[in-house]
Design brief:
The chain is of the alpha+beta class. The protein contains four helices and six strands, in the order H-H-E-E-E-H-E-E-E-H. The N and C termini lie far apart (37 Å). It comes from Microbotryum lychnidis-dioicae (strain p1A1 Lamole / MvSl-1064).
């Protein structure tokens, strides 16, 4: 199977089956035959994971597809600078920003503030270490509008090998209530599989 073929979906999948397929495909896509070679580096895994999810959403017209006003229009990651910026020095102070990582969709905000009086959705997911499911972003205080067509959003924490939250996976949809409880459960499984695929380096 070529890498592009990973976007193919079996017919007539339920939503639960869709996420099971996405997770299994992710594991195959990110599997490496050369541990320590860099194939499982965080940025590399993020790039393919976001592309895979975005493409699978497009190929699932039962819920999203490519129709304007219905489709998922953004899928990507934000991380602490220590995981994206080479030689970044920690100060011992609480982090103040998450920085944009690999994504699929239109250009996005280059960082997310963590110290705003009313935190945005990504900041809330990171700070609370819980999934944020937003049926209508226009009714959510603090929402950061990177794209005006976005109507709903779901953000999931991403944890490293030590179980520490170091970033988030962010998904936007052009439909109100574009994500629900079944999506939350399915995406949690996807993120957990992603975390196991990444080479986080030695546990120190």
């Amino acid at each position: 199977m070529t890498h592009a073929d990973s976007l193919a979906l079996p017919p007539n999948l339920t939503l639960s089956e869709f996420y099971q397929h996405a997770t299994t495909t992710l594991q195959a896509l990110l599997a490496t035959s050369s541990p320590g070679s860099g194939e499982s580096a965080l940025v590399t895994c993020c790039a393919n994971a976001s592309s895979l999810l975005f493409g699978l959403f497009e190929n699932y017209p039962q819920k999203w597809g490519t129709e304007p006003g219905k489709r998922v229009n953004w899928c990507g990651f934000y991380f602490l600078p220590t995981h994206l910026i080479p030689h970044h020095r920690t100060t011992g102070s609480p982090p103040t920003k998450l920085f944009l990582g690999p994504f699929h969709g239109r250009p996005a905000c280059s960082f997310v503030p963590l110290t705003s009086r009313t935190p945005g959705v990504c900041a809330c997911a990171f700070l609370s270490q819980t999934v944020q499911l937003v049926p209508n972003v226009h009714e959510r205080p603090g929402h950061i509008a990177c794209d005006g067509v976005t109507k709903s959003e779901i953000v999931l924490p991403v944890r490293d090998a030590k179980g520490e939250v170091i970033g988030v996976l962010d998904l936007d949809c052009e439909a109100v209530e574009g994500f629900g409880e079944e999506d939350r459960i399915g995406l949690l499984g996807f993120v957990e599989a992603f975390e196991r695929c990444v080479d986080w380096g030695p546990k120190v």
